[in-house]
Specification:
3 domains, binds adenosine-5'-diphosphate, 5-stranded parallel beta sheet, Heat Shock Protein 90, binds magnesium ion, alpha/beta, Rossmann fold, 18% strand, Helix Hairpins
Length: 416
Amino acid sequence: MTEPKEQAGGNKTILLVEDEEAHAELIRKLFEDIGSDWKIEWVASFKEAMKWLAENENKPPSLIIADYLLPDGDGLSVIGKGRKMGEVGIPGIILTSYGSERLAVRSLKSGAMDYVTKNAVELQDLPWTAERVLREWLNIAERKRAEEEREQLLKELKKERDKLKKAMGHMADLKEVTRMKTDFLSITSHELKTPLTPMKSQLQMLREGYVGKLNKKQEKSIEVVLRNLTRLENLIGDILDLSRIEAGRIKLSFDSMNLNGAVKEAIKMQEAFAKGKNIEISAKLAEMPNIIGDAERLGQAIGNLLNNAIKFSEKAGKVIIETKRLGKNVQVSITDYGIGIAKADQKKLFKPFSQIDSSMRREHVGTGLGLAIAKGLIQAHNGNVGAESALGKGSTFYFSIPITQKITKKEAPYIG
Ligand SMILES: Nc1ncnc2c1ncn2[C@@H]1O[C@H](COP(=O)(O)OP(=O)(O)O)[C@@H](O)[C@H]1O
Ligand SMILES: [Mg+2]
């Protein structure tokens, strides 16, 4: 900002365009007499003036003083040229042999900053006029620069605003796509679930021999179908749950409950799986206050964590499930001594469809939904989940739930 100012004001050179040498000398003397530090470059004609300006393009004068009437042209044209030079232009003063209103107006209109009549009295003032004109010019230039800066800023602001608008548009699109995905998942899983129930009951009837006695081979075959049907049912149930969680439409039925009860229920559900791998589940249950929650849904969350602990343990391993009170919260933790999770993979935990891929793990069946659902259910209880794990050593998954909840009458009309 200071640089052009120095260029215009610091270099105190005046280009004086005056065809009469005596006048030029007089003017030079006037500047000398007042002890000013202006350096005066004198040229005697329009052509010379233009030539001088062209040659000094890079080192322009701070001011041009030009006679109105030159033998080969007019001073106003020289001043006009000066105004277009450099970054902010050069101010100019017109000298006239006689004072005339019309001339003055014309001069000012053509870009001269001032005009001075060439008589002895008025010329005395020329050095002061020069100083004043330059000061005014710098002020104007400064204002112009500020204005330009402001305009530039506004332009940039507008650009940023347009970008923001676009990004917001994208975000809206993304939200819409996410909503469509959630709707799709929720609708399809619901539709897929519907025919499963009659299929299952027909198969159960077959197995129980209601439709006719089965031989051992047929019975076994029905067993296989039923087992896979249950898996399918669970998978569809998980997708349905996840879509509801993502849409914020999961329905919880809050009641007074105890987490120890939910833990016991979850252990019961996973017992057969643990037994099959000869894994011992040991429960260390502290005395626990009742909380407000959905016992079935919290049991499901615990079951998902417990299922993983068993699934990712070696055969004949050990899983410990522990409950305790922690200030205003109750906590459940599930520890296994299984394959563990590398530090780099731990950030993928609790995200839908994220199974930490390694050949060992891919042997384990699963959809990668269990942790995401557990997290969603726990968060719906205003709780927190977390995990600590070391590769090859085992993992601890834990969550905590506040003992008291702010539940509205609408959510649980039978409470408080
Ligand atoms: N206790 C655990 N030990 C090791 N890895 C685990 C454990 N629990 C979860 N994981 C990792 O997190 C992934 C996601 O778990 P989850 O959402 O329950 O999906 P799934 O059980 O269907 O694979 C698992 O595939 C596994 O890689
Ligand atoms: Mg799982």
